[in-house]
Design goal:
Layout lengths: L1 H14 L2 H8 L4 H4 L4 H15 L8 E6 L6 H14 L4 E5 L7 H4 L8 H6 L10 E2 L5 E4 L8 H5 L2 H13 L2 E5 L8 H8 L2 E7 L5 H13 L4 E7 L16 E3 L12
Parallel strand pairs: 1-5, 1-6, 2-4, 2-5, 6-7
Antiparallel strand pairs: 3-4, 7-8
Helix pairs in contact: 4-5
The structure holds adenosine-5'-diphosphate (ADP) and magnesium ion (MG).
EC number: 2.7.10.2
Catalytic activity: L-tyrosyl-[protein] + ATP = O-phospho-L-tyrosyl-[protein] + ADP + H(+)
Enzyme class: transferase
Length: about 260
């Protein structure tokens, strides 16, 4: 497994500066391009764990966030969305990272209209901003043009209304949220969804930053339903993060943390 994953990682890393790569080219949908791979299988396991984390109520709205940019939120949320759709759930993936949007690139669609368009218009013309993808049961909503005041737009009754109305049309809505950092967007989204998942790039994010992100979500009573370790620690002296998804934990910093290397 390590070899294969390392190769994949190197290929991606060689192309250009990591930070902006997904903004320019989108993220890798390995669940689509190589659904039989170990990585795709790991995404399916994560999906199952998310489903089992909600025994009582059904999870209808979910957001993925992390402590900083470029930690894998878009990669993880898009691939997880595919696995839910593959299971027959009518799934909508929404790009709520208005400052660093990627979904339009990943799915090769225009970004002239999107979430911001709906948030700023008087009528909710969802059909004009939601695009069906080639993946059966998966639709996406790009971010739309970057507004000057993203946080204000998200923290509105209109946003609540959008979530409520779309929840009636889809079995699951997944938000690719911004990082919990200097802006409050992820916290706002966290208060509006059934559960938030923290993507933790092991070996990159400082533990303090991750704990701060957790505290920020806790402080607004956002419900963190799990964490996903992305890019398991450096191995083999390659200098690359060879591993991929470390796993999903129902609790914060699960005690099995060391198992997946
Ligand atoms: N586990 C991983 N292995 C290889 N590349 C990854 C992994 N996670 C993320 N990447 C890459 O890292 C970059 C940032 O990931 P992205 O999902 O766009 O992060 P974010 O949405 O948090 O900004 C992208 O180029 C993406 O393809
Ligand atoms: Mg992103």
């Amino acid at each position: 497994m390590a070899n294969k994953l390392t190769t994949w990682w190197q290929n991606r890393k060689d192309k250009s500066k990591l930070d902006d790569q997904s903004m320019q080219k989108g993220v890798s949908l390995i669940t689509v391009s190589d659904p039989k791979s170990t990585i795709a299988e790991q995404f399916r396991t994560i999906r199952t764990n998310i489903q089992f984390s909600q025994v009582d109520d059904q999870l209808r709205t979910l957001s993925f966030t992390s402590s900083g940019p470029s930690e894998g939120k878009s990669t993880v949320s898009a691939n997880i969305a595919v696995t839910f759709a593959d299971q027959g759930m009518k799934t909508l993936l929404i790009d709520a990272d208005m400052r660093r949007p990627t979904i339009h690139q990943t799915f090769q669609i225009p970004n002239r209209k999107g979430l911001t368009t709906i948030l700023t218009s008087s009528k909710n013309d969802y059909d004009s901003v939601i695009v069906k993808t080639k993946v059966a049961n998966l639709s996406v909503m790009p971010s739309g043009p970057v507004p000057p005041n993203p946080s204000e737009l998200l923290n509105t009754h209109k946003m609540d209304q959008i979530i409520e109305e779309l929840s009636e049309q889809y079995d699951l809505i997944i938000f690719d949220a911004p990082p919990v950092g200097s802006v409050t967007d992820a916290q706002i989204i966290g208060t509006k969804v059934d559960g938030s998942i923290l993507v933790v790039p092991q070996g990159i994010a400082l533990k303090g930053a991750v704990l701060q992100a957790k505290d920020a979500l806790d402080s607004v009573h956002a419900r963190i339903i799990g964490t996903i370790m992305n890019r398991v620690s450096r191995k083999n002296g390659t200098g690359y993060y060879g591993g991929y998804y470390g796993g999903y934990y129902g609790g914060y910093y699960g005690k099995n943390e060391d198992k997946k290397n």
